[in-house]
Inverse folding.
């Protein structure tokens, strides 16, 4: 598959759509700010692929965030995709090293995934997905099953260097309206799709891969769209985070240090802000040109 891209496909004779994606440089760039142990790198790869896939399935302009918090070894795991196809991720962890298994159930099984959709305009909304299935893909299938009754099949794989994602989803009945035939059709296609492997997804082109899976069925494949790493942090956002602490807390911080240094956990960028700079951001001042 083409690196760092996402491709959409439609079955010509069934109410089904799908997405295929592969992350390489985007994956490496998203992890470059922190020295993560292998199990975290693997989980973040799956989270990045999942965020990218989910954001493809919804028509919106804004950001989609997947987040798990407060577990024993993983205190934060988050990946974000924008409607412009930029991705970023972050994790906080303890007692994990390269030699530990990336065991989804052991590391995240007690958690709840929070899916936040934040449109550029309008209300943001959140869904909670219990992480009770053996992997993230199956947890997300459950999430789709709950919310819209359309069959959804998801496959996610990552090995620390390449992350792949595959999504197959029923569309509202149009070509086939008979309920039984529609269910049979879904079973037929999801069994075929279920044979896809991570190695195949890396080795084959998008067209060859769809041909391999659905040899007897016509598929319309659309041109790949580029995915990339990008961080949305800024001086203004950092200043706003400080202002949100409240006046008393902020003043006590500034009494200790005249200049506060903040690091963006997603990209590693460093921001230095003094009281005057924070006040200027609060007033909405822009530097003179
Ligand atoms: Zn950043």
């Amino acid at each position: 598959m083409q690196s760092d891209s996402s491709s959409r496909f439609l079955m010509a004779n069934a109410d089904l759509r799908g997405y295929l994606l592969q992350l390489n440089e985007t994956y490496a760039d998203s992890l470059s700010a922190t020295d993560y142990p292998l199990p975290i790198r693997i989980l973040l790869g799956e989270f990045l692929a999942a965020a990218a896939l989910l954001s493809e399935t919804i028509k919106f302009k804004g950001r989609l965030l997947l987040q798990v918090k407060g577990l024993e070894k993983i205190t934060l795991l988050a990946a974000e995709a924008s409607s412009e196809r930029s991705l970023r991720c972050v994790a906080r962890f303890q007692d994990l090293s390269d030699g530990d298994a990336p065991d989804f159930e052991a590391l995240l099984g007690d958690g709840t995934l929070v899916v936040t959709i934040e449109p550029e305009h309008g209300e943001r909304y959140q869904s909670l997905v219990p992480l009770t299935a053996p992997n993230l893909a199956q947890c997300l299938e459950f999430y789709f099953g709950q919310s819209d009754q359309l069959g959804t099949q998801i496959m996610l794989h990552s090995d620390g260097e390449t992350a792949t994602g595959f999504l197959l989803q029923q569309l509202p009945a149009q070509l086939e309206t008979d309920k039984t035939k529609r269910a049979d059709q879904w079973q037929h296609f999801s069994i075929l799709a279920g044979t896809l492997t991570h190695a195949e997804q890396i080795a084959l082109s998008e067209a060859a891969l769809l041909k391999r899976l659905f040899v007897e069925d016509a598929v319309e494949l659309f041109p790949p769209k580029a995915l990339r790493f990008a961080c949305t942090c800024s001086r203004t956002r950092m200043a706003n985070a400080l202002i949100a602490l409240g006046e008393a807390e902020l003043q006590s911080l500034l009494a200790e240090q005249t200049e506060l240094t903040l690091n963006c956990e997603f990209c590693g960028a460093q921001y230095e802000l003094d009281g005057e700079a924070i006040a200027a951001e609060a007033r909405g001042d822009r530097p003179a040109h």
Notes: The longest strand covers residues 74-82. The chain has two domains: 5-229, 235-283. The first helix runs from residue 25 to 31.
